[in-house]
Design a protein that fits this description.
The protein is mainly alpha-helical. It is built from 3 helices and no strands. The protein is flat and about 45 Å long.
Length: 86
C-alpha cells in the first residue's frame, strides 16, 4: 500500500511468506496441481485482504491494482480446477 516499503532480501520474503516452499522430491501431477491451487487460493485471500484495507484507507490506486490480481487469480483457479475435474 502507499507509504509502505518492500522487503529487501530473499530471506525477508522467506521469513514472512505463508506459502510453503516445495520439497525437492517427485510428486504426482495431481498433487502438483493441488499444491498450485492451494497457493493461488492463499494469494487470492491475501490480495482480497489488501484490497479491503486499501478501500478502507481510500487508497484507490492499490485497490485497483488488487482488482487486477483478484481477476487473474480467479481465472487461473478456475482453469486449474477444470483441469483437475477431468
Amino acid at each position: 500500500m502507499l507509504g509502505a516499503e518492500p522487503l529487501g532480501t530473499m530471506q525477508d520474503y522467506l521469513n514472512t511468506t505463508c506459502i510453503a516452499e516445495a520439497k525437492n522430491e517427485k510428486i504426482k501431477d495431481c498433487e502438483m496441481f493441488e499444491n498450485v491451487i492451494k497457493d493461488f487460493e492463499t494469494l487470492l485471500k491475501k490480495v482480497t485482504d489488501i484490497k479491503k484495507k486499501a478501500d478502507d484507507s481510500n487508497d484507490y490506486a492499490t485497490s485497483s491494482l488488487m482488482d487486477n490480481y483478484i481477476s487473474d487469480y480467479i481465472k487461473k483457479l478456475w482453469m486449474l480446477k477444470q483441469m483437475m475435474a477431468k
